[in-house]
User: Which sequence fits this backbone?
């Protein structure tokens, strides 16, 4: 499986559906304003869309808001929030060729928990260097 990560402030898509392989996973963390768009509408339409926070994505994420405003999708196109996948109330990918898209506008508590998990894992495996600031 390939993974594509985007973190741009582009007003026009930098990822186009016709350039993606089946089964790709996309992490899209840019396009955090309603007029920004990293991912083209065809990709959004054909992907299993998971978000960090439905509320923030539907007020900030141009990738989805532009597709909604053009009538290509509705807010129901968002399959799940990441917490629903994590706790098992919703499924993630259901077949190998499925294109998956995680759209994040940033939720500070999720970032903090993720950083804590990474830190504890690195500490338990004696990786990295602790720097006192």
Assistant:
């Amino acid at each position: 499986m390939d993974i594509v990560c985007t973190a741009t402030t582009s007003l026009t898509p930098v990822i186009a559906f016709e350039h993606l392989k089946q089964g790709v996973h996309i992490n899209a963390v840019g396009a955090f304003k309603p007029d920004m768009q990293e991912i083209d509408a065809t990709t959004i339409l054909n992907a299993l869309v998971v978000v960090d926070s439905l509320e923030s994505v539907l007020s900030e994420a141009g990738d989805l808001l532009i597709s909604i405003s053009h009538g290509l999708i509705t807010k129901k196109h968002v399959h799940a929030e990441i917490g629903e996948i994590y706790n098992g109330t919703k499924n993630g990918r259901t077949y190998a060729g499925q294109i998956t898209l995680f759209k994040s506008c940033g939720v500070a508590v999720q970032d903090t928990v993720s950083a804590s998990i990474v830190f504890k894992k690195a500490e338990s495996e004696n990786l990295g260097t602790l720097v006192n600031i």
In short: The chain has one domain: 3-107. The domain at 3-107 is CATH 3.40.50.720 (Rossmann fold).
